[in-house]
């Protein structure tokens, strides 16, 4: 009798204790699928139009924003696996398409001509246009967020903006995220204060001078992602996997990270392999990219302490033994979420 009477009490106490335990942080877990639609943004005079693909998360309130810049010859449709995951985690994800260095450069052309045109498009003029494209889209998002009847009205938290990009898009991200352009005239910055965290995939080293002169003054959190076989498209540019790893050592201490996936080639951050690539795709690479990138955004856009703890102590749980993950810590008890 006594035993049967105590059972409900034991069950109740156990339930309360388990209910009080914190939920384990899991950056791989997804919420509801986002709404996906395409939208163009134009400069004030309409001289240049920037196509975008927007992944709008479920819900009705404002959400942090992630901008994504494609690589040379890409489009707003590339790497959408990132947008699907990030938006299912609650982020408005906006993929930009950059006229002049997008898929129009090579599409419909013979292989030799396409390669030649790709090489021509990897120039300083397109680099500057890409930087301007990001500003155009940010300005357009600011306007849309306050315009009555716009589907983005009330949906954007523009105090929490992150930016990512692959290859040429990584170079674009680096510029807007605080890389100094060092030349004969000294150091210049194209940083945009609206961007609070940056995630370059297949980063590019400094064009000139000591890397610390280019990257030593970065003020926002950076997450660098590359692979041990992450070279560049043959015949287009000459960046090597070793070049891509010159960025991380040059960053200052504090909230910076580097992920190096073993055996990963240049296209690992996209959904399609490049014709010249030979390594078989490792399915764990995308799993790792999604989990670690999500934890980075959660920690440094949303100020999620559990995400920061996961990054610093548990990120290896989604990696394989030969992968590399490095952290340059800031204050161990602080995230650097936007204010």
Automatic annotation (TrEMBL):
The keyword Lipid metabolism applies. The keyword Flavoprotein does not apply. This is Dienelactone hydrolase. It comes from Phragmitibacter flavus. Keywords: Hydrolase, Lipid degradation, Lipid metabolism, Signal. InterPro entries: AB_hydrolase_fold (IPR029058). It comes from the Bacteria. GO terms for molecular function: 1-alkyl-2-acetylglycerophosphocholine esterase activity. Residues 1-19 form the signal peptide. GO terms for biological process: lipid catabolic process.
